[in-house]
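[step 3/7] inverse_fold.run input=structure_tokens len=131
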């Protein structure tokens, strides 16, 4: 089993370097591979900032990637929660930070918009720290 780096996942998603994409495809076809949430978060950033893709396209691409036969999210439940919140309009990193917070524990922020978006996205426990 191999854990994938961001650049390997990006080659699989974008295929902009054919030699690297073929090597990544061959490896993923040959053995099960895991992908961490930090790698997924970095992939979201690369796809948004470098490839200028919009959130719905990124979300669908990451879901399709995680549904490939030999691809396993390091935490499948967390990946699903984060992608659901991302699809509901939450920033990917914010969704990951909040979703990693254990049940019954608050995630405290000064960001009022984050609190509102998290609630709408179904992530409970994101609370505003008042000054």
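[step 3/7] decode complete -> sequence:
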């Amino acid at each position: 089993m191999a854990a994938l780096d961001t650049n390997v996942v990006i080659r699989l998603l974008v295929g902009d370097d054919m030699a690297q994409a073929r090597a990544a495809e061959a490896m993923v076809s040959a053995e099960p591979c895991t992908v961490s949430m930090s790698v997924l978060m970095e992939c979201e950033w690369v796809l948004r900032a470098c490839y200028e893709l919009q959130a719905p396209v990124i979300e669908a691409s990451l879901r399709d990637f995680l549904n490939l036969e030999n691809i396993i999210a390091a935490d499948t439940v967390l990946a699903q929660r984060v992608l659901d919140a991302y699809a509901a309009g939450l920033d990917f990193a914010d969704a990951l930070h909040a979703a990693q917070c254990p049940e019954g524990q608050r995630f405290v922020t000064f960001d009022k918009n984050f609190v509102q978006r998290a609630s709408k996205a179904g992530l409970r426990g994101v609370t505003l720290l008042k000054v």
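[step 4/7] annotate
Residues 18-30 form the longest helix (13 residues).
Helices lie at 6-14, 18-30, 37-49, 55-66, 76-87, 92-99, 112-120.
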